[in-house]
Amino acid sequence: MSEKSEFTQRYEQRMNDLQANIDLLAEKYKSSREQVSETSRQELEELKRQRSLLNEKLDEIKQSADGMWKEVAEGVDEAWKDLSSHLKQLRHRFE
What's the confidence (pLDDT) of residue 39? Predict the structure, then answer.
């Protein structure tokens, strides 16, 4: 398996896990609307937006030439770190 394929597979799994976490947070938000601020709702929406952008970058990597994908991958790694941090903060708020 090529390095590019391994990278995309790893991120596809991460994206699936992320979606499961977003779905769980959305359910928690629905069941506790009175207790959760509008800010938290907006942050949940922002998390969804970031996930969508990251998914677009992953698609870009899949379609890029073998020599060019690493440039995009660096941005994906950095975006993933930011998104993961945001997810942790939001999960803590919903606990």
Answer: 77
Q: Check if the beta carbon of residue 76 is closer than 8 Å to that of residue 11.
A: yes
What is the enclosing helix (H) or strand (E) of 2?
A: none
Contacts within 8 Å (CB) and 24+ apart, 79-82 = 79/50, 79/53, 79/54, 80/11, 80/14, 80/54, 82/50
pTM of this structure: 0.77
C-beta of residue 13 within 8 angstroms of C-beta of residue 80: no
pLDDT tens column, 69-92: 888 888 888 889 989 998 888 888
Q: DSSP of 12-64, one letter per residue?
A: HHHHHHHHHHHHHHHHHHHHTTTTS-HHHHHHHHHHHHHHHHHHHHHHHHHHS
Residue among 81, 87, 89, 93 nearest 23 (CA): 87
Structure tokens at 5: 């394929």
Give CA–CA dist 58/40, Å, rounded. Answer: 27
